[in-house]
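Archive entry. Fields below.
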Amino acid sequence: MGLAKRIIPCLDVDNGRVVKGVQFVDIRDAGDPVEVAKRYNEQGADEITFLDITASSDDRETTVHMVEAIAAEVFIPLTVGGGIRTCEDIRRMLNAGADKVGINTAAVFNPEFVREAAERFGSQCIVVAIDAKKVSAEGEPDKWEIFTHGGRKPTGLDAVEWAKKMVDLGAGEILLTSMDRDGTKNGFDLGVTRAISEAVHVPVIASGGVGNLQHLVDGVTEGKADAVLAASIFHFGEYSIQEAKETMQAAGIEMRL
Amino acid sequence: MSTQTKSIVAVIDYGMGNLHSVAKALEHVADENTEIVVTSDPAVIDAADRVLLPGVGAIRDCIAEMKAQGLVPAIQKAMAEKPFMAICVGIQSLMAHSEENGGVDCLNHFDGNALFFGNNHKDVDGTKLKVPHMGWNQVTQTMNHPLWEGIESGARFYFVHSYYVVAGNKDEVAGTCNYGHDFCVALARDNVFAVQFHPEKSHKDGLQLYKNFIHWDGKP
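PREDICTED_STRUCTURE:
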């Protein structure tokens, strides 16, 4: 008896529709975000992450309305990320009904923003999203670096050190995405997940690469993640949240069923 | 229907941010005769049939804001006479003292204190435990109470907190949870019920708790 590991379906939303992750060239429409969120809520999702991948900021208003609509009907935690750059952006999303916000690129360009946000809104609602790529060659000690712009631009920042710094500044949770794995369906990068989870005292959400339910199990047992995030395996009905939870529980992981 | 005939649930807004989800969850389970009012007006709190004290953020700011906005007398009066519920930092604010922010004196409705889990929190087998305690954990009901009606002992609720309550009077503990060690997550005395978790984020069981509160006559 104790704290359950969490399954978090992620809605990548572009122009008001749920789409497959950014890394996919062939973007498939997976439905209306509000309907999808309600379905996952009914299936027993532990939280929902809403990631606004719309390129233009003109559609931010659409996002605010969708968050409001989801929050009025879905009574589990809701994290909203994508384009969060200022405290005003955070305030709007929290007022719309988000429980947490994900800060990604803005943290890389201005780490103090994380401190400011945590002091103003509390660490419990500040999730720092980290996009990491393995940069060490075969045979070298493992090393991962932070990348921006969808994994295209290196920053020279060591991923493990960066995660520790973000937590020191006030991040209440780390959403870790492996850019090598995102969209591959080959499973999480368990090395970086474990390295960061063991280096920080706040929860770590593993993301990027889930192709089957064993990958979710591995994220917790090998990667030491506190929560696992996946998108496409749930969107197109390959697996339900309930099936995923039963598989994880059968593997000895404490789940909320 | 005029508002006079409606039963009013006042959700106290003392400027600590987002009350949207608390109000939405209450509205979701409220019937047509119940109105949910988010307010920082002591007169509205005074006139309400039921009062809910949410809590977000750090305890020092919570207590400071309650005092700055002149809400403490209204809160104490409500706790003396009508169904009253406190959530998350709200339960901590009802204790005698919290060790957060270097030590803060609280409203002292319940005997006991709020303590820090610590950044080196461990399970009994030595496994490192993350702080904050974030996610779904099981709540063991340690008391029969109208607010637990329709909810099984052991049901999971959503938690986000780094400080936990140690009750001074064990008879007031209505629920416990385990995270490294057992700790109190629900306190009850007379017409006051307080919980550490977030019912508004706890799906069906959380909504059931709010529904029970809306119909509670304040008797234990």
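CURATOR_NOTE: The CA atoms of residues 77 and 178 of chain B lie 33 Å apart.
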